[in-house]
Amino acid sequence: MAEETKKIAEETTPEVVVSDVTVRETPQPEPESPEKVAAPVTGESKVEDEKEKELVTESNSFKEESNKVEELPNPEQKALAEFKQMVQEALNKHEFTAPPPPPPAKEEDEKKAAVSADAPAEAPEAEPAAAAAPEPVIEAESEPVAEKKVETEELEKTEEKVTPPETEATPAPAAETPSATEKVEAVEEIKETIVEVPAAVAVVASTEEPPAAEAEEPKTEQTLPPPPPEEVTIWGIPLLADERSDVILLKFLRARDFKVKEAFAMLKSVVAWRKEFKIDELLDEKELGQGLEKVVYNHGVDKEGHPVCYNAFGEFQDKELYQNTFADDKEKLTKFLRWRIQFMEKSIRNLDFSPDGINTFVQVLDLKNSPGLFFYKKELRQATNRALLLLQDNYPEFVAKQVFINVPWWYPAYYRMINASFTTRTKSKFVFAGPSRSAETLFKYIAPEQVPAQYGGLSKEGEQEFITAEPATEEIIKPASKQTIEFPVTEKCTLVWEARVTGWDVSYGAEFLPSAEGGYTILIEKSRKVGANESVISTSYKASEAGKVVITIDNQTSKKKKLVYRSKNKLSDC
């Protein structure tokens, strides 16, 4: 019996060792994974740090990619096809609208899985004890009369507890007489079997129940028809409805470097956020953004046709506007955020999501009179940071270029602090210009007639002689030099023109020279000094004879100047 007990112990110990090994093996990858992840991250950060200056100075390196599927590189085409397949499967399963499963259900499933995994490990332990039970029963019945009564009483007690269904415990003649020690071992073995038999029966019963539950599940699946795919619309475009959906999916792929799973996770997050934020209701909300018309607004397009959005947070220098917008009130902060998102949504609805259309903006951020680095305008800083996070997380790849103008002295230090939070792709869209170079920088991307007058352009509010579609001419005035411009005039017509010099600080004059010999020169505007704060000069002259109008600009400074101008003859007066 001692040998059999050792065999039982040897049979049960391997199961415990196996479970211990799995526990030891699971944490082994954990210390290795940080090392594997840390290595490429540090390498990338070094590369980004080395390229940081180039990205700021060589911002022209970014060029928008094509949204036509046939023009995409093969890896990007495959990523888009895989992404569309994942979206279709999610629509079929209603993953965009179905609520996530409750956490308690997951915990119960894990507990059930743990119990079912442990149950087979206990069954082999009970089987050897149950098999050894008949042997001591047979040996106990070949005893002398004086000791047999004691053993029969013990057997009767055990039989009442065990209640075997068959008469396997019927006494049988034994060939040998057992010793006293063997009788004690027999009684101990019987007691062990009394404890182990019910456990074995319970294990058998538990293993027989799951097949019955599994047999019922196919019946319910066959009776319920599959639901139709759900419809999900984002920015007014139904997903997978037409080629416009491809343009939207490409935005998510590019935002995640064409990593399909990450792009899919971002898409699901954006759809969930839009429902939580109630975007559809937000579009119809009124009385949002009152007094903020000059803080964020759209004005004109750039040279490639992108709508241009201007952000002038220096307008919050107006204390009344600041108090009405923030004023330590969480409700006002919420309204500001809802207004900013509403403005973004309405602007997006005006974009063209066709593959060859314009579906991105140019952002111009005016930092003139903007609050200090950390210590001023706390509520404004918090509001703009929250708005920035919402826009970054839920509006991927909607900015083609981001131009920072009137950059103050402290901003480079601030940019170095936040630089790490931007991807290389995002930083390649940034352009920075100080106060003296703001207008010139804007003219690189936006035509002067499209730039608002307060930023050095020719576009003014109200009724004007010129429309935005009438182009302007740009010229450079060298330091310490004069520049003359001639506008031809037909007989008896009115000539109108407008001109502007960035930063002015030059002398300006205009005169009319007739074409006929012996004619007299007519002074239209006497030469005068034009200050730096003056805007656009708009003038008209009605000629009584053919000739030309000559304007003269005298730049006596040591800096070159940018001159923009345009002219036309008014047809109604000709």
From TrEMBL:
Span of domain CRAL-TRIO: 285-463
PROSITE patterns xref list: CRAL_TRIO (PS50191), GOLD (PS50866)
Keyword Cytoplasm carried by entry: yes
Domain GOLD as annotated: residue spans: 470-569
UniProt subcellular location: Cytoplasm; Membrane
Top-level taxon of the source organism: Eukaryota
CDD domains: SEC14
Biased composition (Basic and acidic residues): 1-10, 45-71
Start-end of Low complexity biased regions: 114-137, 164-181
InterPro entries (alphabetical): CRAL-TRIO_dom, CRAL-TRIO_dom_sf, CRAL/TRIO_N_dom, CRAL/TRIO_N_dom_sf, GOLD_dom, GOLD_dom_sf, PATL, PATL1-6_C_GOLD
Gene3D superfamilies: CRAL-TRIO lipid binding domain (3.40.525.10), GOLD domain (2.60.120.680)
Residue span of region Disordered: 1-184, 207-230
Principal cellular location given in the protein's record: cytoplasm
Pfam family, one: GOLD_PATL1_C
SUPFAM superfamilies found in the cross-reference section: CRAL/TRIO domain, CRAL/TRIO N-terminal domain, Supernatant protein factor (SPF), C-terminal domain
Keywords: Cell cycle, Cell division, Cytoplasm, Lipid-binding, Membrane, Transport
Family, as annotated: Belongs to the patellin family.
The protein's name: Patellin-3
Species whose genome carries this gene: Solanum tuberosum
